What does this fold into?
Amino acid sequence: MKLHVDFGKCEGYANCIIAAPDVFSIDDSNVVIVTDSEPPDDERDAVEEAVRSCPVAALRIEED
Ligand code: SF4
It folds into this structure.
């Protein structure tokens, strides 16, 4: 799985970081950083929760 982030939409709510702290972080400007853009399958549940919990729908999973 690959992650796609619409950085223009991200407003730094940080829900994704709470859901998947090994995959997301946040920079000094409150914009999300993807620390692992191709997360392993054992992160799938956490990443799906992150996608669901983003209030501005900035995250998307692209299947390989
Ligand atoms: S939950 Fe969405 S808006 Fe919040 S930091 Fe993550 S990508 Fe950005």
Notes: Residues 44-53 form the longest helix (10 residues). The radius of gyration is 10 Å.
